[in-house]
Amino acid sequence: FFTRDDEHQVATGGHYLNCVCTDWTYFYSIMFSCVLLVGLLVLYMVWDVNYFLRCVVTLGYGMLFQRKRKVTEETSIYSLCTTQDVDIFIRHMNNARYLRELDFARFHFYGLTGIYGKIKAKRGGAVQGASSVRYRRTIPIFNAYKITTRLVWWDEKAIYLEQQFITLSDGFVRAVAMSKQCITNVNVIELMKEFPGAEQRPEKPAELQLWLDSIETSSQKLRKDK
């Protein structure tokens, strides 16, 4: 039989064991948090995590909350010039960020119009073959803007997109970009016939023709240099 002293010792021992378990649980939780933080730090150092997160958010929002667009319609995404976007003077968006933002707008266009899905269904692919950006005026820090994307022309091997950066405060076009998206393993003219309103190609813009001429001139020069 237990005496009162025995009962006191058992109770005291149980309390001690409970304290030890609590301490170890706290220790493991701290260790897990440290490992998680270090893992995230390494992940951010090795990968451009924000780029992939932005792609997922932009595409996800477009697919879930925005209506589908015809391939001939214009699409828009919205953003803000933050401290991660500015140049060394911390006053406005740096030039490299424009090209990065164009990626998100282009992926958004692909998703809403369904053109990339049809390309993949035909076992094709899309890769940027050329781009040209004209900077008209800077985008100041903490200014909101939108990027519009529209298909302006296509040939057998590529589609051509025009994209504009427009600040919301004044509606001014801060920059305009033209890009050539090369489509692999798919005849683009035949592909476009599957989209309503794109059965016939529009007239080629004059600025696009001049840009393509400059690309061809550069290509010929590089071939001669070999």
UniProtKB/TrEMBL annotation:
Gene3D superfamilies: Hotdog Thioesterase (3.10.129.10). The chain crosses the membrane at residues 26-47. Pfam families: 4HBT_2 (PF13279). The keyword Manganese does not apply. The keyword Zinc-finger does not apply. Keywords: Membrane, Transmembrane, Transmembrane helix. Belongs to the THEM6 family. This is Protein THEM6. It comes from Anopheles darlingi.
